[in-house]
Amino acid sequence: MPTYKIAVLAGDGIGQEVTPEAQRVLEVVGKATGASFEFEPGLAGGAAIDATGGPLPESSLRLCEQSDAILFGAVGGPRWDTLPQESRPERGLLRIRKELDLFANLRPAKCFPMLVDASPLKRSVVEGTDLMVVRELTGGLYFGEPRGREEFADGSERAVNTMAYTSREIERVVRAAFDVAMKRKRRLASVDKANVLVVSQLWREVVTRVARDYPQVAVEHVLVDNCAMALVNRPTQFDTIVTENTFGDILSDEAAILAGSMGMLPSASLGGRVGLYEPVHGTAPDIAGKGLANPIAAILSAAMLLRYSLDRGPDADRVEAAVLRVLEQGHRTGDIAAGGQKTVGTREMGDLIAREVERAY
Ligand code: NAD
User: What residue owns the CA closest to ligand 1's atom 8?
Assistant: First the structure.
């Protein structure tokens, strides 16, 4: 039976509360299947700053590099907001992404049938939405050179950022997206602005070339402005979306609101040998320490870990189905409860899901 080493970086705030629930669900999967999970905790974010002076100690980075996957919580909080940019908690996460070459960010947006009314969109539009945005994470406008500001003699200024991609950078994220599409409904929408941007024209050429290696996947090219409209107009038309960094940043947040609550949204960052799995939400200082946080985003991140890092799709299916069943039974944390509905806390929601996972075997 396989042994998996999982680095657990819970971080700060509700990261400390939801991550143990995700770990518990993996333990249940291990018990039911005979697979052995070894969880190794590491410091990251504000907790690491308090203990070691920096947001990511070398020991945490080494732990991540030597693991099969990383279960991450969230980092940051008002306590560390006054620190200079380069020593803030978020730097720890950026460093892991860079050191582990995590260039593909996977953000699913799924509308759960029983939570349709929590979505800001009409039921008729949003019902059945189940899509995945694959965003390039390490290139494009946020990193391209030249970048900076200059001042002219008359006191006016000019600022520059550059959207630049090599064909190699495009190809590796596009291949990752095709692989994701192969595990889903085999439909891929590549989003660009090829009618205006030269970078997008190269992007489109690379997608067309890589598509020849995936004849089972139906590919379409969608302009980013059209995609932004279609996401709120006909979100069910999408299965897997792949796009560059800036477009992906905006579109993945737009897709996120379809699901209703931050507490429901998992993510994965893939690329190098080790993948990182984390809820999309932050440390929620307003509810941290109260046992109120919704652990579902963290638990669904653990399901993604099973699917994408350990290639245990059927176990991931069981975890996702267990979440669905608990919601069907009417259990809700505060963030997803309708007016007057009884709510449960973080621990109890984790218990309910862990029990359903156990029953699924
Ligand atoms: P947030 O996601 O922490 O919270 C936004 C709102 O959503 C809050 O009202 C919060 O209570 C609610 N919420 C979020 N997750 C929830 C959950 N699981 N259950 C119930 N309610 C939930 O975003 P923010 O308030 O903008 O940021 C707070 C801190 O988190 C900041 O320091 C920020 O830098 C950090 N942050 C970290 C990450 C990360 O580690 N990847 C991501 C985003 C924000």
Answer: 284
> Considering 259, 291, 312, which residue would you say is the last residue of a domain?
259
Domain of residue 185 covers 120-139+165-259
Q: What is the number of structural domains in the chain?
A: 2
Q: Which atom of ligand 1 lies nearest, measured to the CA of 284?
A: 3
Q: In whole angstroms, how far apart are CA 117 and each of 142, 248, 292, 338?
A: 36, 26, 21, 9
Q: What is the pLDDT of residues 205-246, one digit of tens each?
A: 999 999 999 999 999 999 999 999 999 999 999 999 999 999
247 lies in the same domain as 298? no
| Separation of CA 195 and ligand 1 centre (Å) | 36
- Cβ of 256 below 6 Å from ligand 1: no
Instruction: Say how many Å lie between the CA of residue 15 and the centre of ligand 1.
Output: 9
C-beta 332 within 6 A of ligand 1:
no
Whole-structure pTM value: 0.92
Q: Domain for residue 337, yes or no?
A: yes
Query: Which residues on neighbouring strands pair with residue 343, listed in sequence order?
Result: none
Pocket test for ligand 1, best of 75, 283, 292, 343 (most atoms within 8 A of CB): 283
Residue partners of 126: CB distance under 8 A and separation at least 6: 111, 116, 119, 235, 258
193 catalytically annotated = yes
Q: List residues bridging with 218 in a β-sheet.
A: 187
Beta-sheet pairing, 187-192 with 218-223: parallel
- 278/248 same-domain check: no
Per residue in 310-328, pLDDT (tens digit) is 999 999 999 999 999 999 9
Which of 216, 244, 259 corresponds to the end of one domain?
A: 259
Q: Is 75 in the pocket of ligand 1 (CB under 6 A)?
A: yes
